[in-house]
């Protein structure tokens, strides 16, 4: 019976939907995390009476047809790249982006990754790095005798040096943005990679036209909304249960048909 297969596709789709929702909820406290949502499409149809086909020799046509669908499929899990709230951390090397843009990170294999997670630290050489030790491009090195570091909204990094009255410029942070942010590939570790779908990055300083500004001693929080995720989870659960009911009903109908043959 066709209904068994059709309902099974619905159950499989809602199972994947729950997996996506569970990942969103699991990352509610992940800095810079962007939630995903599931997008579905219906499967192919079998046309038993094609709409618009001729219904008589006089040229009349069918105003409606008979099409039987075969279920549903998951086609995409795009990320919702909306701004997350920013929270104060009191750490001088925590940096939040308010607006468009990603920090650039140099990976060990020479490729560039992109992140909204600005929870940075200093390595033994004084370089600004991620929590995994990857250097933040274009490369900022803080001298060992620096008393404090200030990062402006436009990404200019300055240090107060022991024994000096004037501050020392350490460099300029840059941001990258993409025409299609949802086309970035999630690598894990709060990193994204460029893809043909995302397009090539546009790089400029924070505060430039089309780019956001940065906030020192702040971190961008996840954009996951707990209430929305729980309501989506309940809806997915109900849809799964309804599809399972279809399977049970189709099984009972098959049993009834088999009993009639005895």
UniProtKB/TrEMBL annotation:
<keyword id="KW-0966">Cell projection</keyword>
<feature type="domain" description="Flagellar basal body rod protein N-terminal">
    <location>
        <begin position="4"/>
        <end position="34"/>
    </location>
</feature>
<dbReference type="InterPro" id="IPR010930">
    <property type="entry name" value="Flg_bb/hook_C_dom"/>
</dbReference>
<dbReference type="InterPro" id="IPR020013">
    <property type="entry name" value="Flagellar_FlgE/F/G"/>
</dbReference>
<dbReference type="Pfam" id="PF00460">
    <property type="entry name" value="Flg_bb_rod"/>
</dbReference>
<comment type="subunit">
    <text>The basal body constitutes a major portion of the flagellar organelle and consists of four rings (L,P,S, and M) mounted on a central rod. The rod consists of about 26 subunits of FlgG in the distal portion, and FlgB, FlgC and FlgF are thought to build up the proximal portion of the rod with about 6 subunits each.</text>
</comment>
<dbReference type="InterPro" id="IPR012834">
    <property type="entry name" value="FlgG_G_neg"/>
</dbReference>
<keyword id="KW-0975">Bacterial flagellum</keyword>
<dbReference type="InterPro" id="IPR053967">
    <property type="entry name" value="LlgE_F_G-like_D1"/>
</dbReference>
<dbReference type="GO" id="GO:0071978">
    <property type="term" value="P:bacterial-type flagellum-dependent swarming motility"/>
</dbReference>
<dbReference type="Pfam" id="PF22692">
    <property type="entry name" value="LlgE_F_G_D1"/>
</dbReference>
<protein>
    <recommendedName>
        <fullName>Flagellar basal-body rod protein FlgG</fullName>
    </recommendedName>
</protein>
<dbReference type="InterPro" id="IPR019776">
    <property type="entry name" value="Flagellar_basal_body_rod_CS"/>
</dbReference>
<dbReference type="InterPro" id="IPR037925">
    <property type="entry name" value="FlgE/F/G-like"/>
</dbReference>
<dbReference type="InterPro" id="IPR001444">
    <property type="entry name" value="Flag_bb_rod_N"/>
</dbReference>
<dbReference type="Pfam" id="PF06429">
    <property type="entry name" value="Flg_bbr_C"/>
</dbReference>
<feature type="domain" description="Flagellar basal-body/hook protein C-terminal">
    <location>
        <begin position="216"/>
        <end position="258"/>
    </location>
</feature>
<dbReference type="GO" id="GO:0009426">
    <property type="term" value="C:bacterial-type flagellum basal body, distal rod"/>
</dbReference>
<keyword id="KW-0282">Flagellum</keyword>
<feature type="domain" description="Flagellar hook protein FlgE/F/G-like D1">
    <location>
        <begin position="96"/>
        <end position="159"/>
    </location>
</feature>
<keyword id="KW-0969">Cilium</keyword>
<comment type="similarity">
    <text>Belongs to the flagella basal body rod proteins family.</text>
</comment>
């Amino acid at each position: 019976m066709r209904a068994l297969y059709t309902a099974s596709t619905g159950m499989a789709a809602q199972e994947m939907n729950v997996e996506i929702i569970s990942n969103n909820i699991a990352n509610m406290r992940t800095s810079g995390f962007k939630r995903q949502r599931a997008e579905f499409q219906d499967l192919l149809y079998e046309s038993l009476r094609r709409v618009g086909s001729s219904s008589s020799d006089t040229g009349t046509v069918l105003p409606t047809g008979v099409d039987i669908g075969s279920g549903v499929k998951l086609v995409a899990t795009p990320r919702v790249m909306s701004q997350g709230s920013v929270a104060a951390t009191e750490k001088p090397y925590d940096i939040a982006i308010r607006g468009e843009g990603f920090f650039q990170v140099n990976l060990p294999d020479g490729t560039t990754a992109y992140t909204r997670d600005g929870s940075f630290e200093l390595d033994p050489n004084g370089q600004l790095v991620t929590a995994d030790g990857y250097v933040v491009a274009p490369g900022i090195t803080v001298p060992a005798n620096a008393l404090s570091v200030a990062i402006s909204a436009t990404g200019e990094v300055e240090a107060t040096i022991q024994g000096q009255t004037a501050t020392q410029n350490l460099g300029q942070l840059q941001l990258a943005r993409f025409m299609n942010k949802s086309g970035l590939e999630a690598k894990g570790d709060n990193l994204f990679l460029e893809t043909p779908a995302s397009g090539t990055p546009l790089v400029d300083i924070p505060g430039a036209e089309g780019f956001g500004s940065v906030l020192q001693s702040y971190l961008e929080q996840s954009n996951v909304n707990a209430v929305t995720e729980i309501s989506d989870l309940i809806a997915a659960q109900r849809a799964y249960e309804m599809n399972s009911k279809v399977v049970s009903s189709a099984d009972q109908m098959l049993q009834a048909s088999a009993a009639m043959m005895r």
